[in-house]
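Take just one protein record:
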Amino acid sequence: MDLSLILWYTLSFLPLIFVLLQFLDEKRHQNCYILDYECYKPIDSRKVSTKLSGEVIRRNKHLGLIEYKFLLKAMVSSGIGEETYGPQMVFDGREAAPTLYDGLVEMDEFFQCSLDNLFRRTGISPSEIDVLVVNVSMLATMPSLSSRIINMYKMREDIKVYNLSGMGCSASLISVNIVQNIFKTQKNLNALVLTSESLSLGWYAGNDRSMILANCLFRVGGCAVLLTNKTSLRDKAMLKLRCLVRTHHGSKDEAYDCCIQREDHNGIVGFHLGKNLPKAATRAFIDNLKVIAPKILPVRELFRFATLLLVKKLCQKWSKAGGSATKPMINFKQGVDHFCLHTGGKAVIDAVGQSLGLTDYDVEPARMTLHRFGNTSASSLWYVLAYMHAKKRLKKGEKILMISFGAGFKCNSAQWEVVRDLDEGTVWKDFIHTYPRKNLTNPYMEKYGWLQDEDPDTFSIPDDYEIPE
């Protein structure tokens, strides 16, 4: 072939090659990686023991026998153990009248402990953070909590800042989604996500059963997550975000009202959990799965499910008996190796596990997290991830599905890919050898079961009553 012709063809395709290389480079920089994360572990003196729970119950003068029995049943069936953590003001006996200072102290302890450890371990300094996203639902301050962190660590003046409040237990994936969208438009960024909840100002001191329940489930916790889209740090990353789906049913009154902060009949502010919550969660969960399933499952599994669904409908149409009552299920294990389920409560974990056809091994991380740390709101997912991390379950190339629920009502999910084998220590490292535990029952019934036999007309716990050891 003529050399001049070869040169002509080469020069003709150069613009196309250049555009293709530019496109591939932009796609590489749009990836969202987790470099590291740090779950907050408060000091041991903040553990909410059975004895402390009894003292808190006794201090609440609004409660009668019916409320005591309800609390006792809730505690026993909650799936929470005696090593979860509470805010300092509960230990000081001031839960009926918390102050703004209590909320700020709670947050500062989380910020300093988690960020100091994260910066030290990664070698990333506060001045290298380009994006900061903070989500704490129940505490909105002026200046914002994100500004408080910037002042605390003297971060750069051009840092991009997002401060989220009122987003509920699903807020951490919303924060990740904000970072993901920023990464799609700018290269070489480091982002920091802090996710927590303020129990100090969210503690309920009344007797409305729909609001007392929150005190039995929610505990102190938080997580700091360091993300990047720098290709130079790709080999150091732990996880890569594959996809993220958000579902919001706030336009439906039933869904909006099922998880809501309000005042009770005595004017005491608390967090109401309605009876229609399971129904609202189920609907949001189903709609979320409809969107994320095609993104994370292989075509063969989607085809199998569609075929079974079609066959079932045809059988129902032709059969006088109405066909089989068994519903076909999508096998999410065809596209997912590990499941990070929100620790909203024992019933929530069991229901989601059953809906997805998961085994005890699959839901073990969520159950053990609920027992050890309780429901830490938006940060719960990261404690579940840390459990699998500490158990050395996460191997390179495996996929993780995170599922969270939150007020609004929302269901958010995300799939991550493990970039390298993970075997470093986590918040679980000092006691992971004691898990999993077969017996997750707590001693509340054993110590307070006598309440069941009391006369509701004469019932009271005297101030000088000694809580059983």
Remarks:
- The radius of gyration is 25 Å.
- The chain has a mean pLDDT of 86.
- The longest strand covers residues 239-248.
